[in-house]
Amino acid sequence: MFEFPDRLARLAFIASLGLGTALATPQDPTRTLRVFVGRPAGPAPMVGFDTAHSYSTRLPLPERPAILWRARVSAGIRGDIVTDGKALVAITNGNSLVQLDVRGKETWSARPAAGALLARPAITAKSERIAVSSSGKLLVASPRGQSREVSLPIAINRPTTPLPVESGGVVLCSGPDALWLTQDYGIRVQSKLPDDIIDSVARAEDVLLVTTRGDVFGWRPPAAPRRLASFGGRVGGGVALSSPTHVTAVVDGVRLVDVNLKSDTRHIRLQSTTPLQGPPTLLTSGEVLVTTSQGLLLGYDRSGLETWRVATEPALAAAGAASVGADAPAVIGGSGRVAVARPGLDVALISADGTLVAAPGTACTDPESLVPLAPRRLVLACADGELFGIGSGKASR
Length: 397
Hints:
Layout: E1 2-4, H1 7-16, E2 33-35, E3 65-72, E4 82-83, E5 88-91, E6 97-100, E7 106-110, E8 122-123, E9 129-133, E10 137-141, E11 147-151, E12 163-164, E13 170-174, E14 177-181, E15 187-192, E16 197-202, E17 207-211, E18 215-219, E19 226-230, E20 235-243, E21 246-251, E22 255-260, E23 265-271, E24 276-282, E25 288-292, E26 296-300, E27 306-311, H2 314-318, E28 332-334, E29 337-340, E30 348-350, E31 356-358, E32 367-374, E33 377-382, E34 386-392
Antiparallel strand pairs: 1-2, 3-34, 4-5, 5-6, 6-7, 8-9, 9-10, 10-11, 12-13, 13-14, 14-15, 16-17, 17-18, 18-19, 20-21, 21-22, 22-23, 24-25, 25-26, 26-27, 28-29, 29-30, 30-31, 32-33, 33-34
């Protein structure tokens, strides 16, 4: 966060961000302007943990996982939870945006005046908690729970998850419409693509928009989005920025594909005979992890060489059984260790050598989200509202 007491410096900085349209109302030139730039704080302030959707954290994960605390959100939890390390933020099945403390106790909730909350929440560079409603509004809440709604100029039916960007603004898409909002949620620029947008990720110079057909567009205002490449099929389960020139995703449910944004070429890391679940997870080595419907955790390097093969439920995978659940949450990686949560199974921590250690008592039939909270601390959220704090230490009684 920066302060600009000098009027000329303030105006120059605003112009550099393309925020001129935000000055439509009279401004006090002597007022100090607080401009929030940089990445949102915390280990997982947005879905995918960061603007690349890496599902990766630098925080070490538990070595001997145990339940440290349990809590419950009475209305249930829908979709991913996010955290700035000081609180947890979720959308409930009761259509509320809620904040919980680091032991799962609810501190406040906010509801839209009309419509249903659709997209998963995010935390911005200003530490505001945001979510989108079907009424065409953005629900915005402060860390203390003061809330307001901001009208959006597009129809909201299938919105992407809000993407906080380093300029302090937010990118939000619904159908073929794309909005780049300023840090005060004014319209910086608006655009429309020829197809519905399914996901967005950010890199240093632009935001990448991916459509349901698998086309990838680069968007760098004030220019309109420009088609860069294609996955060559339908993308599902999320897109990740695996390098400054590559994006990676599961395509048509069975292929793990890298796309080169400079040459518009595709490289298949994995052609699977069984469905692949969830978004890929990116390791700093360049490897990508993905889970199959049978519970195999697979890893592949950039050349397509297999580097990981771990059965998250050995007896089930060895028997060739069907999926243990269709909506397993993403794998998260950190410090050479990976954590996975699958329906009906305890959360498992897997070391780089393939050793698997389960966190006893953490199984739920409908896991929604698994996020890092602090060093050697994880939180598992289930759709029925049950929350587990998992860490290295003695189990709670």
